[in-house]
Amino acid sequence: MVAHQIWELIRCFKNECEVTGWKTSEYEDWVQTDNQYHNFLWTRTIHPSTFKKIAKTSKCAVRQGVSYQVVDVSYTAWLFSASPPEELVKAVMDDECLAKTTAIYDMSGLRSDKPICLRLNLTKSRVFKEFENFLQKKWGVKFKSAQDVVTAEA
């Protein structure tokens, strides 16, 4: 899946979030429910050390008029346009605190006729659950658990 397709997918999802009363941003890829921010980061790949620094920091910038405010992020979903390194998946699975706040989605399989998305989501994020429902209903996506893939390869 190329960048503009992921951007379009997130844009459509944020439109649905607004209908439910959740706050979104025209400029950033986050959804706010109650006082929690659910951040979407999309990339092709990322170095494991950079991933860990960003994942553990749990901050994002929120535009307010012409200025920005840095806020704490409750949950972060990483959307990869290419398969993420197995090391990243293992890092999240092996760190209970990280697993509660971080979801990983391998979006590279969405280009096929029968789209499959590798998913690691152990969070309690209502937004990420709704994102998964959105992918299933609107895009026909089937999910494969990242835990099963990593366990099978071990």
List the uncertain runs: none
What is the number of helical segments per DSSP (H or I, 4+ residues)?
Answer: 6
Helix content: 40-55%
Total number of domains: 1
Q: In angstroms, what separates the terminal alpha carbons?
A: 28 Å
* Strand fraction: 25-35%
Radius of gyration: 15 Å
List the helices and strands and how they pair.
Layout lengths: L2 H17 L3 E2 L5 E4 L2 E8 L4 H10 L1 E6 L2 E6 L2 E6 L5 H9 L1 H6 E5 L9 E6 L4 H14 L2 E4 H8 L1
Parallel strand pairs: 3-6, 6-7, 8-9
Antiparallel strand pairs: 1-2, 2-3, 4-5, 7-8
Describe the structure.
By secondary structure, the chain is of the alpha/beta class. The protein has one domain. The protein is built from six helices and nine strands. The strands form two sheets. The chain has a seven-stranded mixed beta sheet, sandwiched between helices. The longest helix has 17 residues. The protein is globular, with a radius of gyration of 15 Å.
Key traits:
154 residues; 6 helices; alpha/beta; two-stranded antiparallel ribbon; single chain
Q: How is this structure best summarized?
A:
This protein has helices spanning 3-19, 48-57, 86-94, 96-101, 126-139, 146-153, and strands at residues 23-24, 30-33, 36-43, 59-64, 67-72, 75-80, 102-106, 116-121, 142-145. The protein has 154 residues and is of the alpha/beta class. The mean pLDDT is 89.
